[in-house]
């Protein structure tokens, strides 16, 4: 288990209050990167909130507490009402069916608001009143927020899940794109499905105590829920993230070390 020394994002917000826009954006970009990673691997968190977002010694966000998470299956919907009330989507507190990603998007919208404002968009000590506020989707918008980020928050806090922004729309939003580190969303490089990474296969074998032929068979089966295949693709993705991060650090090093321009 990884030790994360920076504490909860919640405590950071309590200590610092509303964050500067550039800092809020940096945290939010990392959160969306992590949520996107979960969704691409068919996992919906369902309890995203600052208390479940941890900070490491470099102030990088780590998503934690997957106790209420669930696997997404094609054509199937979820109904369980779970998560923290202040961050729960309208369809969740109403007991309606939901696919999964859209409820995480709502929670991320609440988190973004909290980062920028130091308060919650929907809050009340009386839970029924809180639920009524959430279902209306009406929340105060401070005058100091710029129009771009207000537009993004409003897209994420749409009561109708069909009108709510999805991950791809968030990633393409002009506010989100500012100073976006390339390693958070590595470019999708199409790989030859016939080429199998032997290092990743060996790592799966070591972790699960299986033979390489079993991993090969799992990959050939193309079963999206096979644990060996999932582990293999997670290893490949992690390596891709690490490679992109290393490139970014090297680029930053050369930029920082460049001589100043002549005046």
UniProtKB/TrEMBL annotation:
Reactions catalysed, semicolon-separated, are: L-threonyl-[protein] + ATP = O-phospho-L-threonyl-[protein] + ADP + H(+); L-seryl-[protein] + ATP = O-phospho-L-seryl-[protein] + ADP + H(+)
- GO:BP terms for this protein? intracellular signal transduction; nematode pharyngeal pumping
Q: Which residues form the Protein kinase domain?
A: 1-176
PROSITE patterns, per the entry: PROTEIN_KINASE_DOM, PROTEIN_KINASE_ST
- Which is one Pfam family of this protein? AMPK_alpha_AID
- Looking at its record, which EC class is this enzyme? transferase
Say if the entry is tagged with keyword Nuclease.
no
- Name of the protein: non-specific serine/threonine protein kinase
């Amino acid at each position: 288990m990884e030790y994360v020394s920076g504490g909860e994002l919640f405590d950071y917000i309590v200590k610092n209050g509303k964050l500067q826009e550039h800092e809020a954006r940096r945290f939010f970009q990392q959160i969306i990167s992590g949520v996107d990673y979960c969704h691409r691997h068919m996992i919906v968190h369902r309890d995203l909130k600052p208390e479940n977002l941890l900070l490491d010694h470099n102030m990088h966000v780590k998503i934690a507490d997957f106790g209420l998470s669930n696997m997404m299956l094609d054509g199937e919907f979820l109904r369980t009402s779970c998560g923290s009330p202040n961050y729960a989507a309208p369809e969740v507190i109403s007991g309606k069916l939901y696919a999964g990603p859209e409820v995480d998007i709502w929670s991320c919208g609440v988190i973004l608001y909290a980062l920028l404002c130091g308060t919650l968009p929907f809050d009340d000590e009386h839970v029924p009143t809180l639920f009524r506020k959430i279902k209306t989707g009406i929340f105060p918008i401070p005058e100091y927020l710029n129009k771009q980020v207000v537009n993004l928050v409003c897209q994420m806090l749409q009561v109708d899940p069909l009108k709510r922004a999805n991950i791809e729309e968030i990633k393409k939003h002009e506010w989100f794109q500012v100073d976006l580190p390339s390693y958070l969303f590595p470019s999708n490089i199409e790989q030859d499905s016939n080429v199998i990474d032997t290092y990743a296969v060996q790592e799966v074998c070591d972790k699960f105590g299986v033979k390489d032929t079993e991993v090969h068979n799992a990959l050939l089966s193309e079963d999206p829920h096979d644990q060996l295949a999932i582990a293999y693709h997670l290893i490949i993705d992690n390596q891709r993230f690490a490679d992109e991060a290393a490139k970014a650090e090297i680029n930053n090093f050369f930029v920082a070390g460049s001589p100043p321009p002549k005046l």
